[in-house]
Design a protein that fits this description.
Blueprint: H1 5-11, H2 17-32, E1 38-40, E2 46-48, H3 58-69, E3 78-80, H4 93-103, H5 107-117, H6 149-157, H7 170-177, E4 179-181, E5 193-199, H8 207-218, E6 223-226, H9 229-232, H10 238-254, E7 261-262, H11 267-272, E8 277-286, H12 288-296, E9 311-319, H13 321-338, E10 347-351, H14 353-360, H15 363-370, E11 374-376, H16 380-384, H17 387-390, E12 394-396, H18 399-404, E13 408-409, H19 412-420
Parallel strand pairs: 2-3, 5-6, 5-8, 6-7, 9-10, 9-12, 10-11, 12-13
Antiparallel strand pairs: 1-4
Amino acid sequence: MILKPEQQAILNGEKGETLAKVMKTLVMFGEAFDAETMVPVTSKYNHLVTSFGLGALQPVYDLMNQFIDAGAVSSQKFTADPRPMDKNVPSGLLQNLVFKKFMYNKQDYYEDQLKKLGLLNDDAFTCTCYMDAVGNKPNKGDVLSWSESSAVVYANSVLGARCNRNSGILDIMGSIVGFVPYFGLLTDEGRKADWIVEVKTSKKPEAQLLGSAIGMKVMEDVPYVKGLDKWLGNNLDDDACTYLKDFGAATASNGAVGLYHIDGLTPEAVEQGEQLIADGAKIYVIDDDELQRVYDNYPVMWKNIDAKPKLCFMGCPHMSLQQLKDWTDKVESSLKQYGNKKVVIPTVFTAAPGVLKEFETTSYSARLNATGVITSYICPLMYMNNPLSGKMPVITSSNKLRTYTTARYFTDDEILVQITKGGK
């Protein structure tokens, strides 16, 4: 790798042994992907994927202390993924014991480390850091050092920023030295589409289901999606961005997509159109039958497939303000239709702390609370990682949560019926 004088100086130890090790790590990372140079991180803020104080992560805490002791903290503040626990989310005594004593027993300690390293504020815990209420929204063309998969794919695709799918810890390392290896999705060539996806459904496809189908088909490649303009239009408004948030999270978790282009909608597709499609790109047609095939092939991880759901999680990734409002309307209407006053399954809607605070200033907050739905800043995935939680029959419309846990996937419409009427 060819380094510029400033980068070589860091590697040579001119800014201390700790920064030299960080730079060496990033150089080795880049060389593994044939990167020939490093480029500056240009975003205002960083985002860290590691937000949970898991007891087994002692090497992480030791490393963070090395950074703190060496003063290896950049001027770039950061947000982090959601907290793993919230007392407002239903859990039993044994579950709480496992959470607090055996799983996330280092949470307070780790959050103190994050504050010393540059955490943006006490509310900076969310996987949707790009929400306006959070304040970590990169600009088009910004080079990032992020690793949270759903945030990376959103930043690349919807915002036009540039970031590879890094791993945890590498995200803060890039922020500390201010440089990342130049390869993959940082390059023009790496952002070209290897797949043309033609959406030919008879109705607006479920975002999480469509993203799942594409992710499992293209894996880590870049898809260029045609046909969504019929449902999303050609304006990146709140509805379109919310749809793409959930769509992208599914492509990134059910596959390993770090960037997608939506014909006529996402920034680079608007500017370059089909010039983004690489020579020899493969074609994948998605119609109603294909989406049904994907849905029917999801495994059910429950011990008893006919069990009555004990918990519902919505918001993985975290819900937007508009989603909270829309779901308030839908839950109220559906409860009225089925003659119930409150949801019949304990239900948790998760969103960023800043989004929840904004939601609480609206009339929707009291209305949603009256339906029995709980709002929380929690990470549903971290909740489900508790072995006792994993044994519960939990339902969700998140394909990310379905992929990483034992939670069972249903479409939004199916979820609505289950939580307001009951049955499957």
